[in-house]
Design a protein that fits this description.
Layout (H helix, E strand, L loop, with lengths): L7 E4 L5 H13 L4 E6 L2 E7 L5 E5 L2 E8 L4 H14 L11 E7 L3 E5 L8 E6 L2 E5 L2 H7 L7 H6 L8 H4 L9 E4 L3 E6 L4 E5 L10 H20 L5 E4 L4 H14 L4 E6 L8 H10 L5 E5 L22 H4 L1 H13 L4 E3 L4 H4 L6 H8 L1 H15 L3 H7 L6 H7 L23 H15 L9 H24 L5 E3 L5 H8 L3 H4 L7 H6 L6 H4 L8 H8 L3 H7 L5 H4 L5 H9 L6 H20 L16
Helix pairs in contact: 1-3, 6-7, 6-18, 12-13, 13-14, 15-16
Pathway: Amino-acid biosynthesis; L-asparagine biosynthesis; L-asparagine from L-aspartate (L-Gln route): step 1/1
Protein name: asparagine synthase (glutamine-hydrolyzing)
Keywords: Amino-acid biosynthesis, Asparagine biosynthesis
């Protein structure tokens, strides 16, 4: 499967011979690259973009916005003095949408990404020049050498996601290429020195439900508008869950039924009632089209691994390329260019049980009601809920010990992490030592553990979502994730946690925001569909293929990260695995596919899908 990015940029580092060599490498990596913006008459930003960049000049300063927004040149020019005074260019990130901002003055350049990580910033030293861009793989190619960072690869074998302190340590999958944490900006001075400065912080959760709901509704509306205005057809991935249903309803209200196409993939599990709820939501939208792709029509998971997407980092999309391609091809055949996705809502709206500790200080009666509610919902004693809601202690101490707890379910600042049983002793020790070292200087994203946990989950999913967006772009599809936009995140996180999550209602803040827009029955839904049956059905006939891919000759084994014998045992029982093992197997598979692709090592000729003993 051929793969060419249709959205990327790099800020040119000047006119030195090293800069010219780096530019030549970039153009060799993508011959279709062109000049996207100029400064003082010279090429300034190169790459590819489906949208024209907004560029403004004022008083010796030049700024560019790259991505989805509705900011005009005049509005950007008016913001330049404030952005220069801000000292990080973060003032240019105040508008709706998802984009990068680049600000250049006579003696420095600032490059800002977003707060979730959908718009990352990377940099690399190329001789005596520094090259900045939004794709680590391309920057690695610009140096002339692409070498995998083994420690980074090991980190992505941890489930459910790597600890934030390591994921945002600056490392990438490529030796020499560095990453800027979301919510921070990279400053490059006139002699090539780099500085990273934080410009955004997680807000306190102080708004009431009544105050927060209209703010969230307006933020979601603006997020949809900046992506869909001017589009003749707009697509929405309508699973039937609360998050996608909200986006579908808002899109319907903004673009009208004749321009909206809802896309639903039928689940394999007959006990999953998502499809019924998707039909109910679409039925309330006269004139809108609803495409339902039945089981058996969509290719199974894991098909197409012999020709994966070449992405910046390990991604679930790379583990099922034919399935993803079919979905995007179908959307493109319906003339969809912008496809709205509700992914991220599950991370933004609920929150860790530690919210109860803070809620108790604010409203003891409300906290008691929630404790009783969770205990009744889960069928456990109230004392167990209180134990899970306890303060997890200092962040640095939790981080230093988080990998050595085994299957301990004590409260934490983040989900997991847990290591796969097939991880080698060397890899486990290396990761534990790295975590202990990182803990010395690590700071949480917010002093309230539940706020940190929510933002950490948002950023973890954004790392995958932006890779999925890259994979979709060659199909002519611009994936849009409104729940990862700064204004949407701020609207939710500034609302009290006990209003965002509750044992008595699913996502009460979102439901309040959508009142009157989404059918009342959908607002009252209490079930949630699961897709483990789909994975089990796909894994069963693929076991022989997995065994060949993850053999003694696998890239992960060569790097000393996995024990192939232990992994073979787990692969043989994948279709009967618990949720944790299932996830760890998925992570291992996607890491192997990425490592082989990055190393330009051909994937093995895979056996047909059939019941072949491992």
């Amino acid at each position: 499967m051929s793969f060419t990015l249709t959205e990327w940029f790099a800020v040119l580092p000047g006119t030195s011979s090293a800069a010219q060599r780096a530019t030549s490498h970039l153009k060799a990596a993508d011959p279709g690259a062109c000049v996207l913006a100029r400064r003082d008459g010279q090429p300034w930003i190169i790459g590819r973009s489906t949208r024209a960049l907004t560029v403004a000049h004022s008083a010796g300063r030049t700024a560019a916005l790259i991505g989805a927004h509705d900011v005009g040149e005049g509005q950007l020019a008016q913001a330049l003095p404030l952005a220069a005074a801000d000292g990080s260019a973060g003032a240019l990130m105040c508008w709706a949408g998802s984009y990068h901002a680049v600000l250049a003055t006579s003696d420095e350049t600032w490059v800002c990404g977003d707060v979730a990580g959908m718009r990352p910033v990377f940099w690399v030293e190329c001789g005596d020049a520094v090259l900045v861009g939004d794709h680590a793989r391309l920057l690695a190619k610009a140096t002339g050498t692409v070498t995998i960072d083994t420690a980074y690869l090991a980190l992505h074998l941890l489930g459910p996601v790597p600890p934030l302190a390591l994921a945002e340590s600056g490392a990438t999958g490529y030796q020499g290429v560095r990453a800027v944490p979301p919510g921070s900006a990279l400053r490059l001075d006139g002699v090539g020195r780099t500085t990273v400065r934080q410009w955004w912080r997680v807000p306190d959760d102080e708004r009431t439900l009544g105050e927060g709901a209209p703010v969230l509704r307006d933020a979601l509306r603006r997020a949809i508008a900046v992506r869909t205005d001017g589009e003749s057809v707009v697509g929405c991935e309508l699973s039937g869950g609360a998050d996608s249903t909200a986006l579908s309803a808002l899109a319907y209200g903004h673009v009208g039924g004749e321009r909206l196409i809802n896309l639903t993939r039928a689940p394999a599990d007959p006990g999953n009632d998502d499809l019924d709820w998707a039909r109910r939501a679409a039925g309330a939208q006269p004139g809108a089209r609803h495409d339902i792709l039945d089981v058996g029509v969509v290719p199974a998971q894991f098909l197409g691994l012999e020709a994966p997407f070449a992405l910046d980092a390990p991604s679930p999309s790379a583990a099922s390329p034919r399935r993803a391609a079919f979905w995007w091809d179908h959307a493109a055949s319906a003339e969809v260019r912008v496809l709205l996705s509700g992914k991220g809502g599950d991370e933004l709206m609920p929150t860790a049980l530690s919210y109860l500790t803070h809620a108790r200080r604010r409203d003891r009666a409300a906290s008691r009601r929630h404790i009783k509610g969770w205990a009744a919902l889960w069928g456990v004693p109230e004392q167990r809920v209180k134990a899970q809601a306890a303060d997890p202690g200092p962040y640095q101490r939790w981080l230093a010990d988080c990998l050595t707890r085994g299957r301990d379910d004590s409260p934490g600042w983040e989900a997991g992490p847990y290591a796969p049983p097939w991880l080698t002793g060397w890899a486990r020790t290396m990761l534990a030592d790295t975590l202990r070292a990182a803990a010395d200087s690590a700071e949480p994203l917010h002093e309230r553990p539940h706020q940190h946990a929510t933002m950490a989950a948002i950023r973890a999913l954004a790392r995958w979502n932006r890779l999925q967006s890259d994979a979709a772009s060659p199909f002519g599809i611009q994936l849009a994730y409104p729940y990862a936009d700064q204004q949407v995140i701020e609207a939710a996180l500034a609302t009290r946690a006990e209003a965002r999550t509750s044992p008595y209602q699913n996502k009460p803040l979102l439901m309040a925001a959508m009142s009157g827009l989404v059918p009342a029955a959908n607002l009252a839904r209490r079930t949630k569909g699961g897709y483990s049956s789909d994975t089990a059905a796909a894994a069963r006939p693929a076991r022989a293929m997995f065994a060949k891919l993850l053999s003694d000759d696998s890239e992960l084994a060569r790097c000393g990260l996995i024990d192939p014998d232990r992994l073979r045992t787990a692969l043989h029982g994948w279709d009967r695995a618990d949720d944790r093992t299932d996830l760890l197997l998925h992570l291992t598979l996607m890491c192997e596919v990425w490592a082989r692709t990055t190393s330009n090592r051909p994937l093995p000729t895979l056996v047909p899908f059939e019941e072949t003993p491992c």
